[in-house]
Design brief:
single chain, alpha/beta, FAD/NAD(P)-binding domain, five-stranded parallel sheet, 16 strands, globular
């Protein structure tokens, strides 16, 4: 949240304000209420920085005891978890909830791996596009983050080109204030946008968990695929060249910039020179990207599509270790790629933690004074780098 609070003005959420609430048990802590009280837009588009400030405000109001500290290592030691902090402190816990969000999961094409990080930039890691003024920049991708980065680069007087693997770019339509009742029945509105599939995902969120991996994983990958919000269309279409059906094959540093080799659908090869390349290429919720988890612990966990395989309580195959947010999407479906998924995941995890705590207390005999060891922390919550 603190990183997002400094996002460039004009970098907006794709979701509706009412679909982007921090899940809380108390009333009157919704995102639209926060925005309305400050005279800000409450529906769309809303700046990412505003959402970040809202999230920090909710935390300060409801859980002010949160300690902002990095977690450098998480290990499993004889059935208990150890969290090491950069300060040298060690925290021991019986249960840990990993809620890292999209942190660690930024996906760069493998072809960019050899480039210096200041030349190949993931769109999520750039907060100031004004620094690219007068520079030639290639943007990869066709989704919201790629389109928004391209628009901000263009508006900062950069020379921008977009290269996409598919046929081009697509923009969604604006939701009318009033819809005919037939449309509302056939395409009910949801936190994921209108549609019957989205209605099922929101209102029966456990359904996807019971499907086979062969059905759930492809659907999670493809549902709500790359597209831009309606309010981006006028900032991109006709202003920024879009080159469809081009696959990046090779990239290398050249002087102070980069040289990119693209392969076209018809066999054409195109060499492009640029000062920077910005990748709006999404995220990969793979356990191996969570560097703070000790390799031995990662190897103990069962996986689905690289992500942790989770029980109906969001618990990994290592008892006591839970994952929420995008890391849970391949076990629960596309709703959990988004903030909206927290309204289901949060109470489920909380109830299971309470039951586990009570069960532990019921079956633990009271030790004698000589047997008392230093008290363990009953539960730990790690956000990885935050």
């Amino acid at each position: 949240m603190h990183a997002w609070a400094s996002m460039s003005p004009g970098m907006n959420l794709k979701s509706f304000g009412w679909a982007t609430n921090v899940c809380t048990p108390q009333p009157h802590f919704t995102f639209p209420e926060y925005c309305a009280a400050r005279g800000l837009e409450t529906i769309e588009p809303i700046e990412i920085a505003t959402f970040a400030r809202y999230g920090i405000w909710v935390q300060q109001q409801l859980v002010p005891f949160v300690e902002p500290v990095h977690v450098s290592r998480l290990a499993n030691n004889g059935g208990r978890f150890e969290l090491e902090l950069p300060t040298g402190e060690t925290v021991r816990a019986r249960r840990v909830v990993s809620a890292v969000g999209l942190t660690y999961f930024e996906r760069l094409p493998a072809e960019l791996a050899s480039l210096p990080p200041d030349l190949a930039i993931h769109s999520a890691n750039e907060s100031d596009f004004t620094r690219f003024k007068g520079k030639r920049v290639v943007v990869l991708g066709a989704g919201q983050s790629a389109l928004q980065a391209a628009a901000l680069l263009h508006e900062s007087d950069a020379d921008v080109d977009m290269y996409v693997r598919g046929w081009g770019v697509y923009f969604g339509g604006k939701m009318p204030a009033r819809r005919p009742i037939r449309h509302r029945i056939l395409y009910p509105n949801t936190v994921l946008g209108p549609g019957r599939e989205n209605w099922v995902l929101q209102h029966i969120p456990m359904l996807m968990h019971h499907l086979s991996d062969e059905k759930r994983v492809p659907f999670t990958r493809k549902h709500l695929g790359p597209a831009g919000a309606w309010w981006l269309k006028d900032r991109v279409e006709g202003l920024i060249p879009v080159h469809p059906f081009f696959q990046l094959r090779e990239a290398r540093a050249e002087g102070d910039g980069v040289q990119l080799l693209f392969a076209g659908r018809d066999g054409e090869e195109r060499i492009v020179h640029a000062d920077y390349v910005v990748a709006g290429t999404g995220y990969d919720a793979n356990l191996d990207r969570l560097a703070f988890i000790e390799p031995a612990l990662r190897e103990q966990m069962e996986r689905v599509a690289g992500a942790p395989r989770l029980s109906r309580h969001f618990e990994a195959s290592v008892p006591g270790l839970y994952f929420v947010g995008p890391a849970s999407a391949f076990s629960f479906g596309p709703l959990f790629r988004f903030v909206a998924g927290a309204s289901y995941a949060t109470p489920v995890v909380a109830r299971h933690l309470m039951r586990s705590q009570r069960a532990s207390a019921a079956f633990t005999m009271k030790p004698s004074v000589a047997e008392v060891a230093p008290a363990d922390v009953p539960a730990g919550v790690t956000g990885g780098s935050r």
